[in-house]
Write a structure and sequence with these properties.
Elements (H helix, E strand, L loop, with lengths): L4 H17 L5 H16 L11 H14 L2 H8 L1 H20 L6 H11 L5 E3 L2 E4 L3 H22 L10 E5 L5 E5 L9 E3 L1
Parallel strand pairs: 2-5
Antiparallel strand pairs: 1-2, 3-4
Helix pairs in contact: 1-3, 2-3, 3-4, 5-6, 5-7
Length: about 190
Amino acid sequence: MQLTKSQQSLFWRTFAAACRTLHITTEDDKTAYRKRVITETTSQGSLKDVNRTTDFEALIVRLALDSGDYEMAIRWDSGQERRWAYMVEICAIQLTQLIDDQPTPLAYVIGILNQAGYQGRFNGDVWWLDLTADRLQSLFQMLDTHRRRLLRRSGSRHLKFDLALSYHRDHAGIFHGSITHYPDSQRLIRVA
């Protein structure tokens, strides 16, 4: 089983609500409905083969729609956007850590965004963007390319993106990553 216990619990609650709404009462009909929904939504043969991200989200969206819970369907349908948005936010923080020779690292990151044509709005000390999943993915790839270039230029060997890394320069000028948790207060770019 790939799903977590909380995901399994959410699946069964949402599945039960859909069965009630659709007036599916017999165990045979519930089993047939469950298998049909899983196959149609995820192309998987069983719940144990459903992955924790896109498959699970698609399954919950379908069951929420079948149960008439449109608010839940909308919330779960934005999963891919939320993941890309979070990665953009963290990559922007990491870029500001790597740009210590600039007077304002955030201005450098905003310059990248503006050059790419991603217009946002400055609210307080946070830059807000409103982008689709495809544009978020593209933006992440751009920011990550800048991040990798800066790391490579400093002599760092760890170029892979990691959500939990914070960068610090050692005495030789090489950046090293350390495990950290980024609180909301550190996020300089937000995606709405």
